[in-house]
Design goal:
Length: 349
């Protein structure tokens, strides 16, 4: 990929304002294009470099889409610029750790196929993730030929949030996917998320990304196989950038309270009229939320998912806070040990 200027890589004024005069003169502005285990691919004006993680350790944890300053001579990392946005989830498994997915994106394409993969509760998870990161969510429904009534699925998805845009496309047809071009223009970065086999890589190629591996889905349960194994940046026909991500079988939310509240804003509004301020909406007398369900105005599924996501993100957020506190305490301990060693050395001298 050839990028003549940082602007072609999605450079914005909010990043430029973080630079000092000396950094403008002595550093290379680069963007993380792919994370390759012990190495990262960084993109700069008219240059691509594969660097070992050890060379950029001063930048801290990095993910695809991050902006880094590199020493112009040694290419050693100087620092990571503050992110404009970050899509992250709780890492899979029992470990209390946050896993960055993509940084500094403007739009999140949430891809679902019109088969067994279509799941309103899962879409709500992705919506909360996008809204918490303050990026624009666009739901893209693919493989409409696999559904008896794809338009009905589109209407159901549209009702998840006021103003939500839902596009129904054949990911193989570049004419149909052109409806997404407004979010893929120069200086814009989009990320694609969704389960394996929903057509994310096919969609990316229709938008102009270079050839990516694709595989079919199992007919018995419509589940796909992982074809994209690393997150990477691709340039699109319309001038923008796209971050392709591997399929996610597990998407645990953490530090996502605002996102969950905004996705389920009608429940938050109803709760203000409950008899008790600490109403749990699960059998308490005078519950305005349950009354709305009884009238048929609110779906029981929607309340169930709201309570599930609210509890999940609160639990995971607490675990992450405890982990951060432990890390800070450990860091202070290491510093005190180093200081003690230094005092003994100075005394011996």
């Amino acid at each position: 990929m050839d990028f003549e200027t940082p602007h072609d890589l999605g450079w914005k004024r909010c990043f430029e304002q973080q630079l000092s005069i000396s950094e403008m003169q002595d550093c290379i502005v680069s963007r993380v294009g792919s994370h390759l285990g012990s190495q990262v691919l960084v993109l700069a004006s008219n240059a691509e470099m594969t660097l070992p993680i050890s060379l950029i350790e001063s930048c801290g944890e990095v993910t695809v889409g991050d902006w880094l300053l590199l020493d112009a001579t040694t290419h050693r990392g100087v620092r990571r610029l503050e992110r404009d946005s970050l899509i992250a989830r709780k890492a899979a498994g029992e470990q209390a750790k946050s896993q960055p997915i993509a940084a500094n994106i403007d739009t999140l394409f949430i891809v679902s196929s019109c088969n067994h993969d279509f799941n309103l509760s899962r879409l709500e998870r992705y919506l909360a993730l996008a809204i918490e990161a303050q990026v624009t969510p666009i739901v893209v429904l693919t493989k409409s030929d696999l559904a008896e009534d794809a338009e009905l699925l589109r209407q159901q998805a549209t009702q998840l949030k006021s103003g939500l845009i839902v596009e129904l496309v054949d990911a193989r047809d570049s004419q149909q996917t052109s409806v997404l071009s407004d979010w893929c223009r120069i200086n814009q970065t989009v990320a694609i998320v969704g389960s394996s086999g929903v057509g994310k890589s096919t969609l990316a190629m229709s938008l102009g990304a270079e050839t990516l591996k694709t595989q079919g889905i199992r007919e018995d349960d419509s589940k796909g196989r992982h074809t994209t194994t690393t997150r990477s940046i691709h340039r699109l026909n319309s001038g923008g950038l796209l971050i392709d991500t591997p399929g996610m079988r597990e998407l645990q939310l953490a530090d996502c309270e605002e996102g969950v509240s905004e996705v389920f804003d009608e429940i938050i509004e109803l709760a203000q009229f409950c008899r008790f301020r600490n109403c749990n909406h699960n059998g308490d007398p005078g519950c305005a939320v349950q009354e709305s369900i009884e009238r048929g105005d609110l779906s029981p599924r929607r309340l169930k998912n709201y309570l599930k996501l609210q509890s999940e993100q609160a639990r995971n957020s607490q675990s992450l806070r405890e982990r951060r506190q432990e890390s800070r305490k450990l860091g202070k301990f290491y510093k005190s040990v180093q200081a003690s060693k230094q005092r003994y050395q100075n005394r011996d001298e």
